[in-house]
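Re: the 306-residue chain
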Amino acid sequence: MSDVITLFRTFVRVVEAGSFTAVAAEFNTSQPTVSRQIAALEDQLGALLFQRTTRALTLTDDGRVLYEQARQALDSVQQALGSVGRLRGAPSGTLRLACPVVFGRLHIVPRLPVFLERYGDVAIDLIMNDGFTDLVEEGVDLAIRIGEITDLGLIARRIGMTRRVTVAAPSYLAAHGAPAHPGDLADHDCIVYSRLATGARWEFSGAAGPVGVHVSGRFRVNNSEGVREGVLRGIGIGVVPIWHFSDEIASGRLVVILSEFEPSPLPTHVVYPSRRFLAPKVRAMIDFLAHEFEIDPVLSAYGVAG
């Protein structure tokens, strides 16, 4: 059985990397050894798994079927080993954690001292990026994502809710007035966050049902820090997670507008690759964040009106 597991592991990595040479380097072996392992697996199955050319590897129909089954088999083995390992192993090693930029600065980094004090053998490598990091390709253990998870290759656990509000600086409102209805936003400068799933179309929920409006403005940005600064500087109106501006709203530096038409809240998830063994350091961080967010009304369902 161990030989089959080894062959499955090599096969799955060749499929994901698309190269015998890359997998050989990853496993610290030679390219001919990887080729022999794939050939041995093909001999056992009596089927061709790859169409090989000088430029690329292409899975055959049999190869595609085996890939899904091999991944499931490896997942089962890793979960079995992990279940036993978690009973014995203490969290240790470097945890690579990815999260959005503003969320990381405001709500992850301030919590890390407590986590690091609690788990003295764990180090954190934090990747702050508003784009979706490829967890497998970049070797990320765990990522925080806001919104619905559509990647079926990831395991997701919801750890919070993100309430969103429409905000503007007093200086902007003094110069341009406040919209009374989402439709009025068409006549305003709106800060368009280009990574928003709905793009320049903002969706609201009102007493009469959902309302959608196409917005525009002279400032468009692909980074949440840019949205934050643009709103604070009075460049335009923004739709943002309320945790962007908790202090600024409380102090009056920003004003919540269109409060009767609040955008739908978004779930906050931690995600990790389904094929990986869930190491104690990853489990520790998931449980830590879930507890931290649950007791914070800005980050939990407690802050979302039912």
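The CA atoms of residues 182 and 213 lie 7 Å apart.
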